[in-house]
Amino acid sequence: MLKIGQRGIRHLQRFSTASFTTVSASSIEKGQNRVVDASLTLIRERAKLKGELVRLLGGAKASTSLLGVPLGHNSSFLQGPAFAPPRIREAIWCGSTNSSTEEGKELKDPRVLTDVGDVPVQEIRDCGDHSISYPVIRAVSEKLGGPVDVLHLDAHPDIYDCFEGNKYSHASSFARIMEGGHARRLLQVGIRSINKEGREQGKRFGVEQYEMRTFSRDREVLENLKLGEGVKGVYISIDVDCLDPAFAPGVSHIEPGGLSFRDVLNILHNLQGDVVGADVVEFNPQRDTVDGMTAMVAAKLVRELAAKISK
């Protein structure tokens, strides 16, 4: 019996090894692409149904759809934020606060917010990193038929020409955006980790960079922004590390000396312009040292952005 069992185990091991080695990388990729295509079809159908519902309800020119993208092969430091979308959703609806935004809009109203789910991108090194801003802003500008103005809140300018040999690194996303002509104006706020290349790239693309060292001087301008005139709208990109880590410790790149949460809300609430899209990126649940704190911060940003987009 022992010998038979050993033979059976060895046969099973050979079978298992053979099964895994005969699946080609292209087959795996095709399978994953089919899953993504099916998911995107479902997302589009849910968005259409939501649009019909909003039209029936009336009283809305635009509403917000929430889409999670757990993508991260372009991260340069820590991995981990693959779990960010469900953690943010949990924080939005956890019951510790009500469902109204500070401007008085009700999140449970489909004219304000509808969650259409996640794109099922599954990788060994999943992460919701800032590289996603390039394809999203590109898609928005192409859909609208022209460039947008971009308000980018971050500790870093993410404008390297090619970071560590990767042109699509999360540290290079805004270089690709500006090269492609997808943004007319790019305002970067909260910057406090920038080197010579970051400043040179900023000058090359005409970026308006507001560093934290001069924030007290620039506050009045930043809290009274008027964007989007003459273009197709305004896109807002928020890297959670724009905030001082005292407010949001759950990030991969901890950089002291950042914005307060109220600073960010003042900038968002007072912004004049037609906001057509936004992203909240780089929340890393594995570094959220105070239980749920950064998740609640990210959720609050999503809530207030939803209110800003819905009209």
Automatic annotation (TrEMBL):
Which InterPro entries does the annotation name?
Ureohydrolase (IPR006035), Ureohydrolase_dom_sf (IPR023696), Ureohydrolase_Mn_BS (IPR020855)
Tell me which domain of life the UniProt entry assigns to the organism this sequence originates from: Eukaryota
Q: Which PROSITE patterns match?
A: ARGINASE_1, ARGINASE_2
Q: Can you name this protein?
A: Arginase
- Gene3D superfamilies xrefs: Ureohydrolase domain
This protein's UniProt keywords? Hydrolase, Metal-binding
Regarding protein family, the annotation reads: Belongs to the arginase family. Agmatinase subfamily.
Which PANTHER family does UniProt cross-reference here? Answer: ARGINASE/AGMATINASE, GUANIDINO ACID HYDROLASE, MITOCHONDRIAL
